[in-house]
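From the pipeline queue, job 12 of 40. The input is one protein chain; the requested action is below.

Action: predict structure.
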Amino acid sequence: MTGTDRDPGAAVIAKRVDSGTADTDEIRDLARAAGYRVAGEITQTRTEDPALCFGEGKVDELAALVAETGAGVVVFDNRLGPYQTYNLGTRLPEDVEVKDRFRLILDIFGQRAQTQKAQLQVELAELRYELPRAEAKTSLAKRDERPGFMGLGEYDESREQDIKSRVSRIKDELEQIEHDEEHRREQRRESGFDLVALAGYTNAGKSTLLRRLAADLGVEENADLHPDLDTTAESENRLFTTLGTTTRRADMDRRDVLVTDTVGFISDLPHWLVESFKSTLDAVYRADLVLLVVDVSEPTESIREKLVTSHDTLYERNEAPIVTVLNKVDKVSDEEVERKREALSALAPTPVAVSGKEGTDVDTLKERIDRELPPYERERLVLPMTDEAMSLVSWIHDNARVNDVDYGDQVIVDFEARPSVVEQTRAKAGDLTVPAES
């Protein structure tokens, strides 16, 4: 089959593991998320071959499978070095593209990046992926005095410096965006909002749960300051639907809560890729409460591994309490939920089991959110009967939970709110003009 007969949308999955059996479920999902049709797969259990990743015999089998299926792409669920990528390309049929796991993830990110912040983060990750390859091209070409050594392409020493300069520029831009977002978060807190973040792996059902928690009215965002915050959240069975952050007002009786859905975690991400999306994770790190959402229908060991990895990521910089949410209880029996709850008790001692899809026990989750968020302070203010005081009472209604207002010769307001709001209210009350006695 010639290169022109190949199907660029068809992919063969390849995976090597040191021991045990190779699990290809996730890489298949990733390939489909990138828009590929999985035409076949091939796996091997052995130590890594430094030149080909696979052993030579298995590479021959891979080449035969690619020829048979007409696939235009081979996706390795492994990290490939630049030389392994090149060597594999020389052993496969003509015009077959070789991608490793992280190049595929970057492709998905690039497809989903709709906002300035997301696009900058994707570009940063791509540059960090490309930098060691550019360094390898330059180093080998210099050593062997052959530009394009091993087919890696023409080298240019300025390319490395160009990448490093662009990395520095993008980091500066992202820091400015994060500064604006942090200012926005503090404004929300000062206005009486509690900030809750949804975290967890892709396809755990975070976006569905957000829609279930959200009130009908979406949060009004300043597009100039926050172009990445939308008032809706998609719920689709595909990875990385939520690449940026999505914030909505939660439907809570007792307090004002904003819930933010963030980019999903995924296993075995290298540090440079996680670091590229650090500013998105800041929505988690700076929340008042984190809901760590897991798919309870997955095997117990898979859930345990994801909880461990999530805890490593979250506890690195997060100071807020973390509540584990066992989502998708509609897909398993009550007995299975209880078995998994007990098996995971060391990592999730007091989880909340819900179904975001069906709404099962979402009210229980809301009660838990209310208990875990920072406690409100109760305050009783005595205000003069003036127009200024009436404006302050209206402001208190908007930013606190009012228990009672007594209108007489004076206005007595009994309310509860975040400490910052109580402090603001006292300051505003102190600035009120007391009417002169007649």
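Job complete. The two ends are 100 Å apart (CA to CA).
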